[in-house]
Each structure stands twice: as structure tokens, then as C-alpha cells.
Amino acid sequence: QVQLVESGGGLVQPGGSLRLSCAASGFTFSSYWMFWVRQAPGKERDLVAQISSTDTNTYYDSAVEGRFTISRDNAKNTVYLQMDKLKPEDTAVYYCAAGLTRFRYDSWGQGTQVTVSS
């Protein structure tokens, strides 16, 4: 069955860094777009970053562009989100998702909590 398992979340001070990982199994990872989506308390889920199946196309929300970097390793069936210069407003549950196209989310992980606080 399809599984997406996030890891790497935690508590970090403002200005710090975290690297999230999402290990995928149960589907042809290299054929799927991958996404990082976050949900802050009381808010809807928002797309943070996406990467194409061939790693040639990326997109970032304006709130994170220049601070976050999405990447993937198709040999390891893993997608990453490097988060630098973290701000308190980055506090959220971060989910990875997979989709056959850039316009759909077919599967979700369980999420990992990121808290930015001094």
C-alpha cells in the first residue's frame, strides 16, 4: 500500500534550520510530483513547495521562497524540505503529499510538527 512517512520535525529557535524527510513506498515514486503542505493551528492547509517527478521544476510559496529548498532522491524514494531562517510563523504541521500531476494530491503522509519558538 502507499505510504508516506515524514520525519525531521521538532522545536527550533527563530533563525534556525530543520530538514524534513518524507520516505515513500508502495508506488512508483519517480513518476509522481511531490509536495510539502503545512497547516497552522486554526488555518487551512497551504502548499509550501512542490517538485516535479524529474526534479526539473520546483515551486515555492512566496512566504518561504529563498528560505526553503525542496529536493528529491528518486533512488531513495525520498523527498526533502530544507528549512532555513525559520520564523515563528512557520510553526505548523508539515505534510508531504504525492500526485500524478501538479494539480492533484493522491496520497498524504501523517504529518510532522515544526515549532519555531524561543
By secondary-structure content and strand pairing, the structural class works out as mainly beta
Give the termini distance in whole angstroms: 40 Å
Shape: globular
The profile of the biggest β sheet is: 7 strands, mixed
Number of strands: 11
* Percentage of residues assigned to helices: under 10%
- Tally of alpha and pi helices: 0
Mean pLDDT: 96
Low-confidence stretches: none
Strand content: over 45%
N-to-C SSE string, H for helix and E for strand:
EEEEEEEEEEE
Rg, Å, rounded: 13 Å
Task: Walk me through this protein's architecture.
The chain has 118 residues and is mainly beta. 0% of the residues lie in helices and 51% in strands. Strands 2, 4, 5, 6, 9, 10 and 11 form a seven-stranded mixed sheet that branches. Strands 1-3-8-7 form a four-stranded antiparallel sheet, with no helix packed on it.
Provide keyphrases for this structure.
mainly beta; 118 residues; 11 strands; single chain; 4-stranded antiparallel beta sheet; 7-stranded mixed beta sheet
Question: What is the topology?
Answer:
Elements: E1 3-7, E2 10-12, E3 18-25, E4 33-39, E5 45-51, E6 58-60, E7 68-73, E8 78-83, E9 92-99, E10 107-108, E11 112-116
Parallel strand pairs: 2-11
Antiparallel strand pairs: 1-3, 3-8, 4-5, 4-9, 5-6, 7-8, 9-10, 9-11
Quick structural gist:
With 118 residues, the protein is an all-beta fold. 0% of the residues lie in helices and 51% in strands.
